[in-house]
Design goal:
Elements (H helix, E strand, L loop, with lengths): L13 E2 L1 H8 L3 H9 L11 E3 L2 E5 H13 L1
Antiparallel strand pairs: 1-3, 2-3
Helix pairs in contact: 1-2
Length: 71
């Protein structure tokens, strides 16, 4: 059986939507809405698209969180 640990990856790590949702403690759908800019009052979450996959880095998510904290 695999043990899941909640460690914060280094700033260069690439995160999937599932990993971002775990980090932010929200649903995958909410992360998708953040990436699409559909959440009122929240700026768009920076990401890259590789085919159907949407990826972000730890640094981009951290920067986004800092911007939210200052508002």
């Amino acid at each position: 059986m695999l043990e899941q640990t909640t460690t914060v990856p280094d700033s260069k790590s690439v995160l999937t939507i599932v990993e971002i949702a775990r980090l932010l403690r929200c649903s995958k759908a909410h992360v998708c809405n953040l990436m699409a800019g559909k959440v009122r009052g929240a700026p768009k979450l920076t990401h890259v698209c590789l085919g159907r996959r949407r990826l972000s880095t730890v640094a981009w998510v951290s920067q986004w969180l800092e911007e939210q904290k200052n508002q």
